[in-house]
Design brief:
This protein is mostly helical. It folds into two domains: 28-38 and 263-360, no CATH class; 42-241, Rossmann fold (3-Layer(aba) Sandwich), CATH 3.40.50. The chain contains 15 helices and five strands. A three-stranded parallel sheet has the order 1-2-3. Strands 4-5 form a two-stranded parallel sheet.
Length: 377
């Protein structure tokens, strides 16, 4: 079994979606970050942002909607729009059912400190459970309900309340090549169908399930019709297309200004206290990614640090060797929630391994249990 080929600059492997390498072995995302740093006129981009805001500000009950998980990116987005740009947002949370206790506390502090209106929605657990299992079987990814709900539900609210401007945070150009920094990234139906919904529509999902779930049940996961969005003159954009995005620096800002607290995440070094802290099942997501693609969250984080001159490639490889390839303590929790056993899980996920990776499950030792696992619902 050969080692995965990795970018000669960062440490992203050949199994990462959308990745390509140039003649020097440098990946396309590293090249995109070069472009972000050297070719984008960020002062001009901010002027475009100010013009965009001016077109919508004061025209309705809210100036914009901010889809909000309570993680670093959505918290910073809400913070900067309110404090620097003086917008009045409606904060909208699609609660996927696995928000961690500290995230819930962070969200309460943030909403109160910013003085904003807040709307939160959680779908039926009985429906979510079926969606998770079907998604795991079909795609080796149990988060279809999360992917689709987070991106579809705030757009539904935009239509219902006639709030046409929607601000998301980090652009996907920071870590994949579905989009680049050459143009501002529109978070629209094309993007939703391109990679958010895993290639499965709500109609598809109803047909895949056992007949007990209807389109009515899947309403929260359906992207609004384009005609409805055009009728309100919508724009759905990434704030990170207009201002340079740096998650580490922004995490420091919200920690200081909003008392936002990071957290330990399974399989992630503690220095990344700010990364993917919202979800109880993040360790499981990374475990599945490791089985399928041979890398997990530390590879992604260390690569970002290399691109920002905060780590050497050797330091990044050391992190990968120490932290990746462990079975999370949340594994038992996950199996219990979906009423499956380990053999069934392995059979589902191993069908989705991306060549040339060849996982060896027998070598994946146990991970450390998170302190708050005892508090999970």
């Amino acid at each position: 079994m050969r080692e995965l080929r990795r970018c000669s600059r960062c440490v992203m492997p050949e199994t990462q979606e959308t990745i390509t390498f140039d003649k020097n072995g440098v990946c396309n995302v590293c090249r995109q970050i070069e472009e972000k740093r050297e070719k984008i006129d960020w002062q001009a981009r901010e002027q475009d942002l100010l013009k965009l805001m001016a077109d919508y500000k004061g025209k309705g009950a809210y100036d914009c909607i901010v889809p909000f998980s309570g993680g670093k990116d959505s918290t910073f987005t809400a913070y900067i729009l309110v404090t620097k740009y003086k917008l009045k947002p409606l904060i909208v949370t699609f609660d996927h059912g696995f928000l961690r206790p500290k995230t819930l506390q962070n969200n309460e502090r943030t909403i109160k400190e910013l003085g904003v209106d807040y709307l939160k929605f959680r779908p039926s657990w009985q429906i979510v459970k079926k969606l998770m299992l079907e998604s795991l079987i079909r795609k080796g990814d149990f988060c279809w309900h999360c992917h689709t709900g987070i991106f579809a539900y705030p757009m539904q609210i935009a239509v219902k309340l006639m709030v046409p401007l929607i601000f998301w945070g980090e652009p996907s150009a920071e870590y994949t090549a579905y989009y680049s920094y050459r143009n501002t990234e529109e978070v629209d139906e094309r993007r939703f169908n391109r990679f958010v919904n895993l290639g499965i529509s709500a109609e598809d999902m109803v047909g895949m399930l056992d007949g007990t779930v209807t389109m009515r049940d899947l309403e929260p996961f359906i992207y609004p019709k384009l005609a409805e969005l055009r009728a309100i003159g919508y724009r759905s954009v990434c704030l990170g297309s207009y201002i340079p995005w740096d998650t580490r620096k922004q995490s420091e800002i919200i920690s200081k200004e909003l008392k936002w607290q990071g957290n330990k995440v399974e399989g992630v070094p503690e220095e990344y206290y700010y990364e993917k802290v919202e979800c109880q099942m993040q360790g499981m997501r990374d475990y599945i990614k490791y089985i399928k693609r041979g890398f997990a969250r530390p590879t992604h984080l260390a690569s970002i640090d290399i691109r920002n001159n905060r780590k050497t490639r050797e330091e990044a490889l050391d992190i990968i060797r120490e932290y990746e390839g462990r079975k999370p303590a949340s594994f038992a929790v996950f199996l219990k929630k979906l009423d499956i056993n380990e053999a069934q899980f392995n059979e589902m996920v191993l069908k989705h391994v991306v060549a040339p990776h060849q996982p060896d499950l027998s070598k994946m030792g146990p991970g450390e249990k998170l302190e708050d696992q005892r508090l999970w619902d």
